[in-house]
Design goal:
By secondary structure, the protein is of the alpha/beta class. The protein contains nine helices and 19 strands. It folds into three domains: about 160 residues, FAD/NAD(P)-binding domain; about 90 residues, 2-Layer Sandwich (Alpha-Beta Plaits); about 70 residues. The structure holds flavin-adenine dinucleotide.
């Protein structure tokens, strides 16, 4: 079997792999380097939509499909439509992102995108061998975005919840959606002992992506997500007449577990597999965009790949939040409801973006139900 050597190998051409290869392609440091990016998929289907909030213009604006200036939050006793200025909530279709990056890198002489399923990755301490059915590749700088829950399940120090969901793109028979408002979280639906909410992204008055989402430990049978979406359309939106245009589903890990033990000096896990999903929210796309430049700077420094740490004080806040959510999953709605009642979404977004100072952090904590957090803090200390 042929063995080919590359300066850099990226496993997985998803959000993290493509952002990394794109950043390499734009940086003259990598001009004469050989870079291989592998994916089992052709990346020619629209397998997901990414949303995130952002202040003003951003690096992905050319491929943003829809923006909203308002978000709607509903709890059990409180509901409000918020203007989120200076933020906007933005949506990108997966396929547009894949096409834009793959188009850019195809003209780069050093970068090769190859469709191949990785069957094994062997790290002998000096170099990493990446195996596929047809060829094997070796490299001293390998970036791996293949995530599995097994990476987190050998430990119990950090609970592992999932943000799991099924979404339907629906076309309704009558206009029911507010096109300038994304329903960020609607907890007015039955909680059934978990943290369950609806997420609605309208693209026109009669088209939207509606996702039934849980922050909980275990997945549900598919029919349960689907029934919840049907009920929401009929009861909450008063629109039993609709067509399902497309569907999506996902499970994003929510854990403060630090993935660092999986890295080595020659191989670094990135994206979800690198712990880049924000533990308390599951938002990964913008977190990946923010982490990529730091990784590029680290690669250029020539330091071992496992010595880069992204840990900040926000890791500890996420840890306490997940402890609270794990201990009493049925009360999750109350944490969000209290927060959105007491704090402006701008303050919440800034905090979740990890841009707040300590005084602002305290403000957000005081705006949450403080007792469960204090209990969680004591449990962690003692
Ligand atoms: C449906 C869905 C919607 C989401 N929406 C949002 C959102 O709105 N906002 C947000 O911030 N986050 C969102 N996320 C979470 C997160 O942003 C995405 O999961 C994101 O794609 C993670 O990037 P990644 O590179 O870690 O993984 P992926 O993008 O999943 O990339 C991994 C890649 O590895 C490839 N692969 C897998 N196995 C192999 C193998 N054996 N050999 C070769 N290649 C392989 C896959 O084909 C894939 O291309 C969503 C996730 C899903 C699933």
């Amino acid at each position: 079997m042929t063995v080919l050597h590359y300066d850099y190998i990226i496993i997985g051409a998803g959000a993290a792999g493509l952002m990394l290869v794109d950043a390499m392609g734009k940086d003259s440091f990598f001009k004469d380097k050989s870079i291989l990016i592998l994916d089992k998929d052709t990346k020619t289907t629209n397998d997901r939509t990414w949303c995130f909030w952002e202040k003003g213009e951003g690096q992905f604006d050319a491929i943003v499909d829809k923006t909203w200036n308002h978000v709607y939050f509903a709890g059990k006793k409180f509901a409000k439509r918020f203007n989120i200025n200076p933020y906007t909530y933005k949506m990108i279709r997966g396929i547009d992102f894949y096409n834009s990056v793959l188009d850019r890198i195809k003209n780069h002489p050093g970068i090769i995108f190859k469709q191949a399923e990785v069957t094994d990755v062997l790290d002998d301490g000096t170099q990493v061998t990446v195996k596929t059915a047809e060829e094997n590749y070796t490299g001293r700088n390998v970036f791996n975005s293949l995530f599995s829950y097994d990476m987190t399940r050998h430990q119990t120090t950090y609970p592992v919840l999932q943000q799991h969901f099924i979404g339907w793109f629906v076309k309704t028979s009558k206009p029911v959606f507010d096109t300038d408002q994304a329903t960020y979280m609607d907890f007015s639906i039955p909680q059934k002992g978990n943290t369950r909410f609806m997420y609605v992204l309208p693209t026109s008055e009669n088209e939207a992506l509606i996702e039934y989402t849980l922050f909980s430990e275990h997945l549900l049978p598919k029919a349960e997500y689907e029934k919840a979406i049907k009920d929401y359309l009929a009861n909450n939106l008063d629109c039993p007449d609709y067509e399902i245009m497309d569907t999506e589903m996902g499970s994003i890990p929510m854990t403060a577990y630090d993935f660092k033990e999986h890295h080595s000096k020659n191989m670094r896990y990135i994206g979800t597999a690198g712990g880049w999903a924000k533990p308390s929210t599951g938002y990964t796309f913008r977190s990946t965009a923010k982490k990529t430049p730091k990784l590029i700077a680290h690669i250029k420094s020539g330091k071992p790949l496992d010595t880069l740490s992204y840990k900040t004080k926000f890791w500890f806040y996420d840890l306490l939040f997940l402890d609270v959510l794990y201990k009493d999953n049925a009360k999750g709605y109350n944490v969000f409801e209290t927060l959105f009642k007491n704090r402006k979404p701008q303050q919440v977004f800034k905090f979740l973006d990890e841009d707040t100072n300590f005084a602002e952090d305290i403000g957000n904590m005081m705006g949450s139900p403080i007792i469960p957090f204090i209990k969680a803090l004591f449990r962690r200390i003692f």
